[in-house]
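Quiz preparation item.
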């Protein structure tokens, strides 16, 4: 249901919300600058720093009051009412201006000038409203970790991570069961070290955190069931590694992104590497031992260079794939090969394919846990989305302040 609502939001084709990306329209509204895709909603910033969100709003994650819908009266005599979803972007964050925004699961957070974090939606600190689920919620942006200032902040479903202005890598504890509604406090990931990059993935049964330090080394911890920690030697336990271990075979790292059982990194010259799960094939016949030391899947226990001569300036994690942007803004995506994995060439199991080849992007965003689609801001400040469940076509998300 939640993914379907986001799919509808990303694929809205009414004249008041989103039109075909190929439809000509005057660019008189503010340009878009950044987009973030959450579990069942998405948010974007324009070049002025104003925030706009669309999709599900049952937990106030859009940061704006939408018309309410009420269910039937239950046995307790109470009628549950909740804000409805919006296919059109609605203004969020009040009059605040943000430098970055992150849409998570039932909440959104933004970084204001100076790095102060503000959040709205479910279970944000100081919320006094009540959501459909019985949790606390707020339509207004409220301070998060007010004593800290951030360079980056990413709100996930079960874990929130950020890098402070002093370079400290911080993550919340992984929330289990129904505790994902909470927005827990942040704790240092690697005390005493400065971080240039940070990523986390938490979805049962896999949990991983990776840090890129200021020396260009990547360090990861957590699940290692498919050798996704990228170490040359197998750790003592494949199930979980509680301390950070260094990813082998890749130097001068600029970025690491985490997927469900596999990871990819980008070095400072734009070469992409991947390691961990190489194939989505689940079972092997007798005598077909999987390479890489995994029980049921083919794995790469250390990073392998991919993409041939392609070089990227950025990589991002999307549902079951990683996408990269070249210097020219061309988008390519790849994931583990369906079916048999190559016994000799692991790089052949991650094959980049062009995405939206007629467009050039300044940034991309997707959701790693659900098939909620991807969005991108083009070089000329347009916002387009594609690939949502049941609605794969590309649509353009128009700025709500565009004159009619």
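Solution:
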């Amino acid at each position: 249901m939640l993914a379907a609502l986001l799919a509808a939001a990303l694929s809205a084709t009414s004249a008041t919300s989103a039109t075909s990306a190929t439809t000509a329209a005057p660019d008189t509204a503010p340009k878009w600058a950044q987009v973030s895709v959450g579990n069942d909603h998405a948010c974007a910033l324009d070049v002025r720093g104003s925030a706009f969100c669309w999709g599900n709003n049952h937990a106030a994650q859009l940061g704006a009051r939408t018309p309410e819908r009420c269910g039937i009266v239950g046995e307790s005599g109470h009628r549950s009412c909740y804000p409805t979803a919006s296919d059109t972007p609605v203004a969020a964050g009040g009059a605040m201006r943000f430098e970055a925004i992150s849409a998570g699961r039932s909440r959104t957070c933004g970084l204001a000038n100076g790095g102060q974090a503000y959040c709205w939606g479910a279970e944000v600190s100081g919320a006094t409203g009540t959501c459909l689920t019985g949790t606390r919620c707020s339509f207004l942006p409220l301070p998060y970790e007010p004593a800290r200032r951030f360079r980056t902040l990413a709100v996930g479903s079960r874990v929130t991570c950020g890098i402070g202005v002093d370079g400290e890598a911080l993550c919340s504890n992984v929330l289990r069961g129904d505790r994902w509604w909470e927005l827990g406090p942040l704790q240092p990931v690697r005390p005493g070290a400065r971080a240039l990059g940070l990523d986390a993935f938490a979805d049962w049964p896999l949990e991983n955190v990776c840090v890129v330090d200021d020396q260009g080394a990547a360090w990861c911890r957590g699940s290692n069931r498919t050798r996704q920690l990228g170490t040359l030697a197998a750790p003592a336990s494949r199930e979980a590694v509680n301390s950070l271990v260094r990813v082998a075979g890749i130097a001068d790292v600029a970025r690491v992104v985490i997927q469900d059982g596999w990871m990819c990194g980008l070095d400072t010259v734009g070469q992409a590497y991947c390691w961990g799960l190489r194939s989505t094939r689940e079972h092997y016949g007798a005598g077909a031992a999987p390479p890489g030391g995994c029980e049921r899947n083919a794995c790469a226990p250390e990073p392998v260079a991919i993409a041939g001569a392609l070089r990227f300036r950025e990589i991002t994690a999307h549902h079951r794939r990683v996408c990269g942007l070249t210097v020219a803004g061309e988008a390519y995506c790849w994931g583990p090969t369906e079916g048999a994995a190559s016994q000799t060439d692991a790089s052949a199991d991650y094959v980049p394919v062009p995405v939206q080849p007629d467009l050039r992007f300044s940034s991309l965003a997707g959701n790693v846990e659900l098939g909620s689609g991807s969005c991108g801001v083009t070089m000329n400040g347009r916002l387009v989305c594609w690939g949502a469940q049941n609605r794969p076509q590309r649509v353009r998300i128009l700025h709500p302040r565009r004159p009619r």
